[in-house]
Amino acid sequence: MKIIGIGKNYVSKKEDIKALKNGDQTIFLKAESTLVTNNEDVVYPSITNELAYEVELVAKIGKKGKDISLENAPSFISEIAVGIDYTAKDVLAASRENKGPWALAKGFDGASPISNFKPISDFLDLSYINFNLVINGEEKQTGNTDFMIYSFAEIIAFVSKYMTLEPGDLIFTGTPALGAGLNVKGDHLQAFIEGELLLDFKIV
Known about the structure:
4 helices, Fumarylacetoacetate hydrolase, domain 2, alpha+beta, single chain, six-stranded mixed sheet
């Protein structure tokens, strides 16, 4: 099972999409051991002092595909969840100094808490899904897929040119342009899709 992420995929103003949509998607991979499920608490990792959160919708692949067309791409999604893509920002900064990869900064244990999944049939329009993140009772991020630079379908079509997508693969589809920040021990995170609380955990 692969965990695929896309970076810098949301805008705060829809009119910016055209200028930024140049086909150059920022794709990275995360280890399966990053997953935290069933609303279990996340242990603050010892490898960082800067644990950065980003709330994202997560698409689960339901069938095998390679070189998937844009038109057929939505049919490869079986379910959708909400998750947090964690980054160890200090680890990432150190790696970037040497032009290194993102692997350790994104791939540590606990870096991908996700909610239970909702069937794709629950979503009438993939291009208009609301989601948000509340931390300690305060809304920190709010997003709608209408503000994505690259849609679910465009991500799937692009990634499948390079690697075969298989049932169970997960795609973190990007975070809203505003509101990402740092977590500390004791923080209580709650993430919602269309107002429904799906992800609920603490940093311990």
